[in-house]
Amino acid sequence: MNHPGGAGGPADLVRAFRLRALERRDQRGLSLAEVLVTIAVISILFVAVAAGLTTSVKAGAATDQQQRLQAKLTSFTEGLRSLKAEYVGCGVPPDQATAWNTKYDEVVALPATTALQERADLGASVIEVRYWNGAAYGVSCPVDALGHVDDQGSQLLTVEVTEGDRVVRGQVVVRTTT
After folding, report:
1. How far from 24 is each of 33, 111, 120, 159, CA to CA, in Å?
2. pTM for the whole thing?
């Protein structure tokens, strides 16, 4: 005989139905809202990582360019320093910086000169010349008591290397061989 609350009664049937419904609901997976929130979070993380990588690549490229410019600057200043025998004396027209650039180009063009790179390849030029007057480097050629040009045999050259929109400047002292 069946009675309310007993085995096989309607209460057991309702409990079994609810249990099956709960089991089915647990197996249905994620809801649409949960999937959309997950996609949004992953997208935000992806954008942040991509921005970080982009910044890293740009910083690396800027560092590479700066190192290239420094290497070109060093190459040009060492090349100028090696021109001791080709020293450009004080007061060479039209201006001293142009005279140094021309002299460098002439030496590079010689068949026996293989160690120097061309100025055009380096993007380099002398932009200012200062002259040793016995105490300091000045902007004009020193003169002796009679008013004659008295080149002391040492000049401070300011050089510039350009690549794209980047510019690096440096200085080198060039002396005569004597």
Report:
1. 19, 89, 77, 80
2. 0.64
Question: Which domains are seen in the chain, by residue range?
Answer: 57-175 (3.30.1300)
User: Is 68 buried (19+), middle (13-18) or exposed (0-12) by CB count in 10 A?
Assistant: middle
Alpha carbons 72 and 162: distance in angstroms, whole number: 9
Q: Distance of alpha carbon 6 from its chain centroid, rounded?
A: 84
Q: Are 97 and 125 in contact (CB under 8 A)?
A: yes
Question: What is the CB neighbour count within 10 angstroms for residue 143?
Answer: 14
Contacts (Cβ under 8 Å, ≥6 apart) of 162: 123, 124
Band of residue 175 on the pLDDT scale cut at 50, 70, 90: confident
Give per-residue pLDDT as tens, 4-57.
555 667 777 778 878 777 666 555 577 888 889 999 999 999 999 999 999 999
Instruction: Measure the CA–CA gap between 65 and 166, rounded to whole angstroms.
Output: 8
Looking at residue 150, what is its pLDDT? Answer: 80
More confident: 84 or 161? 161
